[in-house]
Amino acid sequence: MEKIAIISDIHGNFSGLQTVMTDIENSGCNRIVCLGDLVDGGDYNDEVVRFLRDNQIACVRGNHDEFNNLELAKDVQDFIDSLPDEIVELDKIYTHISPRIKKNTISSPVEAWNVFCEISYRIVFVGHVHVPLIFGEKCEEFGSSTVYEFNYGEPFHLDLKDRYVISVGAVGYGRDQIKKLRYVIYNQTENSVEFRAVDGELLPLGFWAFF
C-alpha cells in the first residue's frame, strides 16, 4: 500500500512542519511530496528548506520561492533554484498554483473547469490556495465543476471515472476559520484522499497572508 503525504505552503514555519511530520510518520505514509512556498512568512526559512532537502522530500517551486526579498543562505537558494514547476507521475500532476499555461488560482468551480478543459491528468494536486478543496469534473452545470464535501480524518474515495483537482491546504497558515495545520494523504491502493487537520503552531496572519 502506497500512501503519499502531500504538504504545501510552509512559509518558513519550521515548528508547524515538524508537527506535521510527526503526524505523517504516525499515519504510515511511504513518501512525501511538497507543493511549494517553502519560504517567506516565518522566521525559519533556511531550516525548512534544509530539512526538506536533507530528507530527500520531493518539492516543486512556489511563487514565494521564486519571488521574495529574503536573504537566504547560498545552499538554500541553490536548492530552491533547482526545483521544478511540476512533478508528473502517470495520470497525476503535482504543482503549486495550476497546471494550466495561465496560472490562475484554483479556488472556484469555474477555474477548476478551465483546468479540466486544458489538461488530461486524472488528478491534479495543488497548493497556493491555503484552503482544502476537492473539485470534480463530473458536473450537471456546463462551465463549472462539482465541489465535494469531506470530513477531516476520513478517506474520501475517488471515482475512477471522474477527474479531480485537489487543493491540499497549508502548513504555514490557513485562509479560513479552521486554525489547524493541514495536509493530504493520498492512498494510491485504495484510490482515496484523506485531509488531515493537526493542532500546532500557525504563522500569524499578516497582509502577505492574503496574496
Could you explain the architecture of this structure?
The protein is α/β, with parallel strands linked by helices and 211 residues long. Helices cover 21% and strands 24% of the residues. The chain has five helices and twelve strands. Helix 1 links the parallel strand 1 and strand 2. The protein is globular. Mean pLDDT is 96; it is low at 207-211.
Secondary-structure blueprint:
Blueprint: E1 3-7, H1 14-26, E2 31-34, H2 45-54, E3 58-59, H3 63-66, H4 74-81, E4 86-89, E5 92-95, H5 109-118, E6 123-126, E7 132-136, E8 146-147, E9 156-157, E10 164-168, E11 181-187, E12 192-198
Parallel strand pairs: 1-2, 2-3, 5-6, 6-10
Antiparallel strand pairs: 1-11, 4-5, 7-8, 7-10, 9-12, 11-12
Helix pairs in contact: 2-4
Helix content: 10-25%
Please give the radius of gyration in angstroms. 16 Å
The separation of the N and C termini measures 37 Å
Structural category is: alpha/beta
Number of helices: 5
Encode the helix/strand succession as letters. Answer: EHEHEHHEEHEEEEEEE
Q: Mean pLDDT across all residues, rounded?
A: 96
Organism: Floridaenema aerugineum BLCC-F46
InterPro entries: Ap4A_hydrolase (IPR050126), Calcineurin-like_PHP (IPR004843), Metallo-depent_PP-like (IPR029052), Pesterase_MJ0912 (IPR011152)
Pfam families: Metallophos
Protein name: Metallophosphoesterase
